[in-house]
Amino acid sequence: MSMIHWSKLIVVVVLLSLTACHRSAKTEQIDNQENTKDILSICVQTDTIYQVKAFDWQNKHVFVVPSFWDKDTLSTFCNEEALLEQESNRLLADTNTRLMYSQLPVLFIEMEESDREHIYKDRSVSPSASIALFSADGTNEYEGPITIKTRGNTSWREPEKKSFTIKLSKSTQLPYLEKGKSYTLVPNSMDNTFLCNALAFQLAKSLGIFAPDFIFITLYINGNYMGIYQMTNKIEVGKRSVDIVDLEKENKQVNDRPLNDYPTFSEGELRMSGYKKGVCINNPEDITGGYRLDYNEAKCLLELSISGFVSQAGDPVRIKSPKHASREQVDYISNLYNQMETAFMSPTGVHPETGKHYSEYLDMESFARNFLIQEITQNIDGGLFSFLMYKDVGDSSLMVAGPAWDFDRGMKKFDHPSLPFNRLWTVSKTTMKEKPFSGSLLYWLWQHEDFQNMAKRIFINELHTYVIDSSRWQPYADSIIDLLQHDAECNRMRFAINYNKSYREEANAVKDFIKERDSFLYWLWTSDSSDIVTVQVTGPINPRKSMTKELVMYGNKTDGVTISPIPWEILYNRDPTLLGYYIYGTDSLVKDGTTFYHDQCLEIRWKNPNWFQIQYRRVRKRIKKLDL
């Protein structure tokens, strides 16, 4: 362990106290966090005390402390050596106590406990707090006030390990990150290897797609160890991120009051086609840009956004910038988006009224490149959630896809063995009762031969070439695995994560996934169609939402397509009424393990589709009763 640098950080005193916490908790995980028995407090040269609380693991009290805290130097730095050394030795000698060290930079967040509880329940609030960031060797990188809020969709549902946005009081240069004021703390709750986002960002950069810089940190909130987080620059309009005209800034210049003070508006029925929302403010002279959009099927996020719309195809689009969009600005960008949507959903790719091809609305190459990143990572959310795009000022400027974001649910072959590997993930056709049209944006683009040809060409000439040259990306992945191996064990203990294998084996499986996925895509896009067997599957995958799926699995003539196990979407919704696969139009049940050597069409059948609705109502009643 490295020694503490006297000039940067001095451990003045270590106070050990026993505390009994009697707070009520609403989930087992929250209860785990609050019922801490020991608190270890570290006082730095700024006279600020940062607490590190123990958590329970297998009947032990576990402390995860920064690497720069050295128990061997305790007596040297303490004024009350006798008492504190006695207490320290007692605690460390206790067989029920385990002391572990984080090897990562450390971020302490301190706030009122009532504020912490509030942001865990409400994504719209952003109370004040304070932070201190220390490098792994104890260097004090930053201390100061912030505002903090929870964010995300799936990650927000986590009872403890949520995603956060923090905003500093001024723009600051933090180590390994671009100078900025706002940062995102990503928990990677869906990825126990913490490698998926990092590797996807690296692959994106190899294709010229912007991805934010990041560092891995250990996070403490009010002394509670929160495990590994990925700290990134927040994606926003600016020269270091999305370099377009800042229309939000221009809106501020032509309005006398803070934009939050102006009334908001909404038109249409929430979550339905044609819905719009924004702010009643004045406009600058030019409202053609820039706009930063978030295409996201999670319509609940649109409710939380100040500005946004639902397209004519039923897709919710959040206007991330300008955050406070005027009525005219929402009308402009929604009309443009709807024209673009009409064009790429047309069989010819041409808008029937404007006569414009979809490539006259969007930058086809940027969408093709982003499509490839979604496919090679087999991102479950690909093309459905957190698909970002932007448009600069000017009527002639095109919609551009990017930056790359949110891949912690990708590369999951090792985590979900039932995930059908032999398919194109983002272009499966999905139908929902709330959407008058089917399929995601990427699904419709894939229906056009010119888009397919461009994506295949970029894959073969660039992405495939990059992946097969292991020296260009595997050392990077290995460095992350080496960095996180120890802290991943601490994180696993804290959140009771069960690994089927060791962390290193799980992380290496991510690398293997990329190589295997690359091989599959290369085979699929370079083989003659006569050598490919296709098995099409159709039917409801979630009767409660009237959601149906059409997917195609591919294989060669020699090996065929094996229908085993059931695809992930079906397995996820499995219940006693799921009957399984049937040969389309017949009563012939297809058993797991069946292999087809010729083209086939299957359908999914349920005994009682209403089972979902019954169970859903029961769950909602339980949640309401628990006040979660």
Overview of this structure, please?
With 628 residues, this protein is α+β, with helices and mostly antiparallel strands. Strand 25 (578-583) and strand 26 (589-590) form a beta hairpin. The longest helix is centred in the last third of the chain and has 24 residues, at 503-526. The chain is globular and about 70 Å long. The model is unreliable at 1-37, 72-86, 413-418, 568-574 and 622-628 (pLDDT under 50).
Blueprint (SSEs and pairs):
Layout: E1 14-18, H1 28-34, E2 38-43, E3 49-53, E4 55-57, E5 60-66, H2 74-77, H3 81-93, E6 97-102, E7 106-110, H4 113-121, E8 128-134, E9 140-151, E10 163-172, E11 180-186, H5 196-206, E12 214-221, E13 224-233, H6 247-253, E14 264-267, E15 276-279, E16 291-295, H7 299-304, E17 308-310, E18 316-321, H8 327-345, H9 364-376, E19 387-391, E20 399-401, E21 429-431, H10 441-446, H11 449-468, H12 474-494, H13 503-526, E22 532-542, E23 547-556, E24 561-563, H14 568-572, E25 578-583, E26 589-590, E27 594-596, E28 600-606, H15 611-626
Parallel strand pairs: 5-6, 7-12, 22-28
Antiparallel strand pairs: 1-2, 2-3, 4-5, 7-8, 8-9, 9-10, 10-11, 11-13, 12-13, 14-15, 15-17, 16-18, 16-19, 17-18, 19-20, 21-23, 22-23, 24-27, 25-26, 25-28
Helix pairs in contact: 9-11, 11-13, 12-13
Core attributes:
15 helices, globular, alpha+beta, disordered C terminus, disordered N terminus, seven-stranded antiparallel beta sheet
